[in-house]
From TrEMBL:
Keyword Transferase (UniProt): yes
InterPro entries cross-referenced by the UniProt entry: Citrate_synth-like_lrg_a-sub (IPR016142), Citrate_synth-like_sm_a-sub (IPR016143), Citrate_synthase (IPR002020), Citrate_synthase_sf (IPR036969)
Range of residues in the leader sequence: none
Protein name stated in the entry: citrate synthase (unknown stereospecificity)
Pfam families from the UniProt entry: Citrate_synt
One CC-aspect GO term: cytosol
Entry-linked CDD domains: CCL_ACL-C
GO biological process: carbohydrate metabolic process; tricarboxylic acid cycle
Organism: Neomesorhizobium albiziae
Lineage: Bacteria, Pseudomonadati, Pseudomonadota, Alphaproteobacteria, Hyphomicrobiales
Family (UniProt): Belongs to the citrate synthase family.
Amino acid sequence: MSDQEKKTGRERGEEWWSTEIIEMRPGMIRLRGYDIRDLIGRISFPATIWLMLRGELPSDEQAELLGIALGAAVDHGPQAPSIAIARMAATCGVGINSAMASAINVLGDVHGGAGEQALAFFGDIAAAMDGGRSLEEAVRARLEKFFAEEKGYVPGLGHRFHPIDPRAPRLLELVREFAARGVIDGRFAAIADAVEAEVARLKGKKIPLNIDGATAVIYGELGFPPPLTRGLFVLSRSVGILAHAWEQSQQPDRNKGPLPREWLWAYKGQPKRSLD
């Protein structure tokens, strides 16, 4: 009989959802080994996020920089698909949780995933530098590959509304401040600057870093892997989603669709025809 077969039903049940994240039993909760009573009131929400995801507590400055990135991307207005969906869902009579879930479910590759893509792109360049290439060589090679094999926009650059995304320069300014203090090394900021400069050279015009690229820089500097970047964006944008869902729920609109009632869609199908 194998060791697995010798285990009791309770032992198998306890192993079924084994986790290193939380230990809990009546009267006791520990997160990553820390008693919840010791954490409450002593560490910030960004520090709690870090602890849950990474297993160890960050420094105060690391937690501060993480909070800065999370705070920068909370909202971009009702024209953003996720926010519009949250508001429409709220008018359909569902609760806050359903309105938020409806919105969060559309944070995919096109709307919400650009930060992950940007950090993966910057990470490819960092890996090439680790392999011995200079920053300029690594950036040039990655962009050549992108334009030869991939489609769309260079991740982390450009914005369909803002000629210059007002959030990005401020975030990069803060990244440089934290690098000067030794909290981070500034490597991903240098990569982002070099990508922006090389794209400007190739295109003949500057396409500035956007919020996704700027937050990707911060998450990269703090050591988060690209897939977690999307999850962190979901956490951030959930704040705006909640605010809009709540605001809409307090208004009298019912079944509020994407257009005012007096505006209808363009029909481009068959003209009127008779069944006979």
